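fyi for ur records
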Amino acid sequence: MNVAPPKFGSKSLIGASVLRKEDNAFIRGKGCYTSDIRKEGMLEGFVVRSPVANGSFTIGSLDEARAAPGVRLILTGEDIAHLGTLTAMGMRPGPDGEKAPYRPIPVLCADRVRYVGDAVAFVVADTLDQAKDAAELIEVDYDSDDPVTSMTGALDDGAPLVWPEAGSNTAYLNTHGDAGKAEAIFAKAAHVTKIDFIQNRLVANYMETRAAIGEWDADANRMTLTCGSQGVHGQRDIIAKGVFGGDVDLRVITPDVGGGFGPKGFVYREYPLVLEAAKRLGKPVRWVGDRTEHFLTDAHGRDNTVHAEMAMDENGKFLALRIRLIADMGAYTHQFGVAIPFFGAMMATGVYDIPALDFRLTGVYTNTCPVDAYRGAGRPEAAFLVEKLVDACARETGLARDEIRRRNFIRPEQMPYLTQGGRNYDVGEFEACMDQAMKNADWAGFEKRFEASRANGKIRGIGMSYYIEACAFAGSEPAYVQLLDDGTITMDIGTQSNGQGHATAYAQFVAETLGLDVDKVAVIQGDTDRIPTGGGTGGSRSIPLGGVSAYYAGEALAEKIRKLAADELEASPDDIELIGGEAVVAGTDKAVSFADIAKAATNPADLKADGEFKQDEATYPNGCHICEVEIDPDTGVVEVASFTMVDDYGLTVNPMLLLGQVHGGVVQGIGQALYENAVYDESGQLLTATFMDYTMPRADYFPMFSFETRNVPSTTNALGIKGAGEAATIGSTPAVMNAVTDALYRARGITHIDMPATPQKVWDALNG
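which gave:
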C-alpha cells in the first residue's frame, strides 16, 4: 500500500516520552521469569553434553545412574526415536535450481555428535544436584574423529566432514544479482577496489539464560510449555507439528523475558525434552541453562568471511559490486540459519545507486555451535561490507569519504528505487542525514582534535557509516482489545516483549484512540490460549505492524463505545467524545463512565474489537553514524571518544523507548567491533565459553552518545513507522571500524584490521 500517514498533534500520546509501565515491577524485583516459577512436585532436568566436537558414541549401562538418589528418568536418543527433529527453514534454490538438503538438529543425538555441547542424554531428578550427580555416572564412550572449525578450511580437499554422507562440507550455494552484467562492467571499469575481511562470530549473552518448564495433563491429553521466547506461536507450531508430529495439544506460555536479540526466537532441544519427560513422569519438569551452556549451545551470530570488489568510473561513480561470501552454519542447519546470509545479500548495495550486483554465497558446515539470526540478522553484515568497501574506495580514489558517498547516494527523486538486491526503497534523504550528522559530530573540526591527540602521544581517527535496513517485512500482526467492567482495557497481541517496552508502546496506541491514560491499558502477550496466531517479535516488526493494528483495534472499540454511550445518553454517536475514561456529549456535562458502559452492555461482543494492519512491503529505517576514536599506541587500547547518530525512523512513537533501543543497539555494535569474539581451537573446544574469556562491553567504556532523528515517514506503513529495534547495531559497527582504520592509516598507513580490534590486535598492527 502507498499511503500518506496521519499527523499526530503535540498533545498526542503518539510521539510522547511516556514512562515505561514495566519498570515499576522490574526495579522492585517483582518480575517473573521462567526460572522464578515453582510448580507443585516439579522435578529438575539436566542435559548431558558432548565434550568432543566430532565423533561417534555409545552409551553403556544406565543402571547405576538410574538407581542414583532422586533420579526419576534418563532419556537417550534411542528412547525418543519417535520424536521428530528441530525444524529448519529458508533454504533457497542453488545455481542448479535445486535446494540443498537440511541437516536438522535431533532432540538427542543417536550415535554421533557434531560439536562440543551436542546433546547426548537428559537426566531428570528431584533436584538439579541429583541430576548432575547421576549424569556423572553415565558412561559415554566417544570414538573421536578430527573436527573442522575453520569455515575456509572446511572447503579444503581432504578436510574432515561434519556430515560424511554429504561428501563435502558445503551446506548450500546461492547466487544473487546478475553475474554476467557485473562481469562486463568490471572488465571496462576505470578502477576496481578490493577488500577481504572476517565478520566475527558472536554470542548473544542476554541477561536471562534460557529455561523451560514442561507439564502434562493426562485428562486433557495436553502439554504446556513455559519458556522465555520471542513469540509463543512459532514455538508451539514447530514443537507440536515438527517434533511431536501433530499428535499433541500444546499450550505455550512466555512470562517475562530478559533479552532476546534473535536467539530466543528459536526452538531448542530442551523444550521438547521437558515436555516428553513431564508426559512420562506425570509431573512438571524444569530445565534452567547456565551461562556456559548458553555459550556452548544457544545459536551464535554472524561468522562470515568476505571478499568484495567495487567497480568505478574515473569519477568514483559506483558501477558494479561483486561479493564472494562464505557463511558458517555450524554443525546443523538451524531454524533460520540458512536464510540469514541471503537477507544480507538483498541489502548488499546499501544506500548506493549501484547498477549491477554479483553475489555468490557459500554456506559451510563446521563442528561448531549452529549459527542463526542475531540482532539485525544479515543486515549488519551487509552494512559492514558495503561501508567498509566504500571507505576503501575513497582512500584509493583520493576522494573524501563524504564526497564519494554524495556521488553515489540514491537521491530522493529516484524513489521508489528498486535495488539490485530486490529491495524497493520508498523514501529516504540520505545526504541530508549525513550532512546533519557531520555537523553534529563537528567533522570539520576533527583535524584540531587529531593534533591535540598527537601532542599527547595518542592516535586519533574518525569514521562514518550510512546504513539502511529492511524490517517490518510484509505481513500483519492482529491485535485484540476488550473493555472490562472496571473501565480498563486489555489488549492481546502475538508479539513478545524481551525488554523493548511493548506494554508501554502498545498502550500508547490504544489509549490514544480511547482518550485514556496508558495505565488503564493492560497489554497481554505470551499465551497461545489467549490468541490463536501471532508472528512474534523479530525483524523490528512489533511496533510497525503490531502498533498499527493496536491503533486500528482501539479505533474500532472507540466506535463501539460511542454507540453504546449514545444509546445511554440519548445522543448521536458523532457527538460523543471519549475523555479520561468517560463518554461525554460534546459541549454538555452529560457523561457516562467506561465502567458503567461495560456493566450495562448486554452483548459481550460490543465490548470487544480487533484490528489488523496488513503491510505489503518492508520499511527502511536508515541513518548516518559517526564515531571518533583515540588509540594509545603503547597499549593498543581503543577508546570511543564520541559517537554521533542522525537516524530516520519514520514516526517516533516514544522518544524515550527509542533512545533505549538505540543506546543498546550501539553498544552491541561497538561490542562486535572492539571486544566480542567467539573462538574455537582446532580440536573444536570453545575457548571463549565464560565471561573470563569473552569480553562484554561495559558502560564505562563509552561516552554519552549524540542522537537525533530526521524522520521521513514511510509510505508503506499506515502510520509512517519504520522500525528501530535493530538499526543502531547495523550502523554502529562499520562506523567504529572505519574510525579505527582511519586512525591506523594516519599513523602507519594500515588499511585493514579485522574485528574485534582488541588491544593486542591493534598493538600488533602498529608494531608490525
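Residues 542-569 form the longest helix (28 residues). thats all i got for now
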